[in-house]
Design goal:
nine-stranded mixed β-sheet, 3 domains, alpha+beta, 19 helices, three-stranded antiparallel β-sheet, 556 residues
Amino acid sequence: MAKAAPETARISPDARERYEPVIGLEVHAQLRTQSKIFCGCSTRFGDPPNTNVCEVCLGLPGTLPVLNRRALEMAIRAALALHCTVQERSRFARKNYFYPDLPKGYQISMYELPLAEHGWLDIEFDGGKKHIGITRVHLEEDAAKAMHEGFPDSAEKTYIDYNRCGTPLIEIVSEPDLRTSAEAYAYLTTLKQVLLYTGVSDCNMEEGSLRCDANVSVRRRGSDAFGTKVEVKNLNSFRYLARALEYEIERHIGILESGGRLEQETRLWNQAAGRTDSMRTKERAHDYRYFPEPDLLPVSVAPAWREEIARTMPELPAAKRDRLVRDYGITPSDAGVLTATSELASYFESVVRAGGPPKLTANWMQTELLRRLNDASKEINESLVAPDALADLLMRVESNQISAAIAKVVFLEMFNTGRSASEIVVEKGLRQITGPEEIDKYLLLSLLENYRQLEQIHGGKITTKKFFLGDVMKRTQRQANAVTIEEQLDRILDTYEAAKRTIDTRVDASPDDPVRVFITLYPEMWQISLSTGTSSSLISENKYAEPGTAPTTTGE
């Protein structure tokens, strides 16, 4: 009998540091076949309960299972993607246990001769990489779905939907190489990405297509011996996995620090309560009374077939990330985002092939396209902006036909309507103003109108340079080229500094009077300001001449 001990006591940092968690994950992924693993019933999700069933998947007497070749092929694809050795000969076994969701009283799985072994998966974590071993990948059938809620008598009864019973699964068992909940999260994220790239599973956790059980124990740091292992089930989200592991690690350390003993058991994660609850004492292999499945022949995978499947394998995420960095010059961080899904990576490369500058494309996809897709709860394949349309927009930005600010306005219209950039630019008159002379007109008017800011010029520099940049962008409805504005502003200020030293005293102006200097340098702009009303604030202060007269002082 285990010694009683408080399971949820707070653990001090020193106590936590004395122990090392040891974590291994068992991941079950439903395969994307149209029919079940041993019969022809549909695997379609969401059909009315108990409609996709037959004598075979219900385990009725006198029926025989027949292996689904497509399920076997998908399992091999997954094993190859995880760098496993696919066995030429493997064998199904009966795993015997009694539960309402298992109509035969046993599950057809694999035991001593699994489909594939000795693989690995590299995860990126905390700025580095870690090599996680894969013990085995094997095929098995799923159980039915027990429904404990949602019925008037749910408090007394459990309902069973056998539609899921017999759906093909692969179980991927990792080595106990994970040491933190964050590493486990990274492993599961990376594994899901690989399965999606290979197309073997849709990994929809809400529909139960991807499920995870965690085996966790703790041991004294420096020890090679494993502690008592506990299995945690009901981890149907990545966040739940991380929280459950953190809870279990602290629970284990708390019991050991208080002098208690741990039992090998199976526990369920209770999200509402934020804890794990004991479910049953953990079974060992002999409890399941495994023996070879007598109704199925051993599985034979010919080397030629294995090689044929290998030739059809897609480029996997890690290799794609490396290639995008190498071929397009984007950063590893950008490549990581753009290869999150194969569809997203394909979209990026399609934009670049259509002429989009790679680095600009990477930036726009992250800051504009993905942000708006996320806000609209849409996937990349639902975007109304086709790759060639985005490439056209970005080429206009690159060639200075439109500014980045204008491009964002255009892109929003493209995103909402699917129209092309050329249509929107022409319709709204959204050309970029790049000519120095035209920009000078807006810039000089801004300088004249905001003469008080001119008084902040000291030592040849203006402290409000960004103010004038923003003011000109506002006057041009953000159509002016920002680089040209800055260049012209610097040129005008340089001219102003020279004029201060040589200004003709016959106009009775002081070189410390910034507006008078500009009027002297640019009389035509003064006339424009008069005609547009820009100079009204100056005239109202009786500081400069009335319209139509030569600029003179007022005797100040």
